[in-house]
Amino acid sequence: MCGIVGVANLRASLPSPGRPLVARMVAALRHRGPDEFGLYLDDRVGLGHARLSIVDLAAGQQPMETPDGGLVVAFNGEIFNHVELREELTAKGHSFRTRSDTEVILHAWRAWGEACLDRFNGQWAFALWDARACELTLARDRLGVRPIHLHEGGGRVRFASEVKALFADPEVPRALDPAGLVETFTFWAPRAPRTPFLGVTELPPGSVRSWRRDGTSVERRWWRPRFPTARAAPRDEGERVEALRAALRGATRLRMLRADVPVGAYVSGGIDSAVVASLAREALTGELHTFSLRFEDAEFDETAHQRAVVASLGSVHHELVATRSDIARVMPAVVRHAERPLVRTGAAPLYLLSSLVQREGLKVVVTGEGADELFGGYDIFREAIVRRFWARNPQSTLRPRLFDRLYPWLAGSPQAARGMALSFWARGLDAPDAPFFSHLPRWNAARSLQRFLLPDVLAAARASCADPLGPLAAALPEDFARWHPVARAQHLEMETLLAPYILSSQGDRVLMAHSVEGRFPFLDADVIAFATGLSADERVFALDEKHLLKRAARGLVPEAITRRSKQPYRSPDAACFVGEGAPAYVREALSAERVRAVGAFDAGLVAGLAAKCERLVASGSLSNADNMAFVGVLTTQLLHDEVLRAPPEDCDGLRFTTEIDRRA
Question: Which of the 8 DSSP states describes residue 227?
Fold first, then answer.
């Protein structure tokens, strides 16, 4: 895995981007690829690369050009089927100098053009410069595992894996985007192309964008998830289970063996990571290193389940206990790498875990991300089923009792708690066929955080985009309304949470902060195609989430893991930042002076929120909304300090092992 940067002149009259600027941009991403650094320069373009050496350690340096110099690529990611593609291209007459997947991209582009993206099975963001046509192309993988951000202005387009590299150019303005904040306090993260920064956009997942010689550009979505529009005929479950096992086995094997360095595995205690770790164990002839995250708070800890999985694997296991003080200590660094406000603290423990992986000398881990979105694992899917059933008879007092099956604690809760929960789920009950029916309760709850934003910020956001749900509705697939309701909910989860939040803040950013690459077998192209073709009952059957996946897991993981109820990954939130041991930066960041200086929130409301959290955290009576508000406000303040006010990276001592200069 790597970091890529670049600057391209959209007007031929502009001077070459120059070495100093590209070097500063690469320096800002050295954590993503500390092994080697490279750059390419010509009269129109500068490309830079920070390499984490994983495939073809000796000859995979970047940027890489074709022998004739016609095409140049800077690539972040992995094309896992590069061996098979190389064989196909060799048969067509292409000659290769390396064993790297990077070179496969160059030849595939020559052979098939943009259509090569459909052939790639992997996770990537790359920039390809056609020096003869003077055309720059940026492309991103199907579900947005790897990021790429850009800024256009002054006759140039600048792009980078992370925004901090864009800010190495003084021509790029540094300011928060009000509309990005409103999207954060709706979906939990801005949805591409929106980012938290004014003038900075993100190439959406499954998209490709090209700039032509005359400076014009065209963008299209080359891939997006598709679900069946008709009810599938009954299928033999045993055959489907075997087909799923085969797809997951192949996907995991590719990710374990297509690396020239050791690959470890995360074990969370849930079924997804357990399946991946089991298949990873199958693929290896040597020892498997596994890593687990524990919590001192029993509410969040899954140690017993993790150790049951590890015992079945016989792996070399490593554990890390994340305390509240640990989470608070690293949060500024987490925000610096995440480059966005966070409404949950879940990224911080994962940041600590990737640090452990680095200390143990590993560069790559496989994890279970994507299983919940593709196989119907989240509570939000089951909630929508119950809510839709309730909506057929909204006066019923029996139908909402089904929530007790999802959350057994409700059955014995005080009436106030039950009443509040049912009130939450009843939102939108009068429109069960609305496109956002499944997600409106969550989004409306998150929208309550917007009350802390200043009126001017809200007005500016509305001037830019009247309502973030509008662009989302406009981007829905044409046949969306004909999909099963479970499939519609899955699509919304992929669009609004998977790439912007889980694969970004809790995935790429916290892994690459410690130069660790994450690989996700559930996001394999063949697994995605299999999962999106499932019937709704094969995903969620009678409120049994991940129905088919659980059956495929039998014999691979301990029976207790397949039977246990899903425990969503969570960590302590506001409790980490209040009380006697709270870090000094918290009080400083939430002070009236700093809140006014950042200019996003009402200082009086923030002071009231902080006081309320101090008062209620100890008793455990702080609401979910206040927890999210506290973390959201604090991390927005930290974002301003850690990213917008941060000085440019010093590139002194940065030595380029690859340097191609094609300037006239």
Answer: -
Please report which confidence band the pLDDT of residue 422 belongs to, taking 50, 70 and 90 as the band edges: confident
- Amino acid making up residue 564: R
Instruction: Express each pLDDT in 602-630 by its tens digit.
Output: 999 999 999 999 998 878 788 889 999 99
- Taken in order 546, 547, 552, 553, is the CA torsion positive or negative? positive
Q: Per-residue pLDDT for 1 more than 80?
A: no
Which residues pair with residue 129 across a beta bridge? 72, 136
Diameter over CA atoms, the chain: 78
Name the strand (E) or helix (H) holding 196.
Answer: none
DSSP-assigned letter for residue 146: S
DSSP 60-124: --SSEE-TTSSEEEEEEEEETTHHHHHHHHHHTT---S-S-HHHHHHHHHHHHGGGGGGG--EEE
HSE toward the beta carbon, residue 357, CA cutoff 13 A: 33
Which 8-state DSSP code applies to residue 656?
A: -
For the chain, how many residues are written? 664
pLDDT for 414: 61
Torsion of Cα atoms, 231 then 232 then 235 then 240, to 10°: -110
Give the pLDDT score at 416. Answer: 65
Cβ(9)–Cβ(80) below 8 Å: no
Per-residue confidence band for 353, with pLDDT thresholds at 50, 70 and 90: very high
506: which DSSP letter? I
Look up the CATH number of domain 2-224.
3.60.20.10
Instruction: Read off the pTM.
Output: 0.96
Sequence-ordered list of residues with C-beta below 8 angstroms from that of 440, at least 6 positions apart, any chain:
427, 428, 434
Instruction: Give how far Cα 601 sits from Cα of 360, 589, 595, 604, 664, Å.
Output: 42, 12, 6, 9, 51
590 contact partners, CB below 8 Å, separation of at least 6: 606, 607, 610, 633, 634, 637
Q: Using omega within 30 degrees of 0 as the cis cutoff, is the peptide bond preceding 63 cis?
A: yes
Interval 535-554 mean pLDDT: 92
CATH topology of domain 237-374+492-563: Rossmann fold (3.40.50)
- Whole-number average pLDDT of the chain: 94
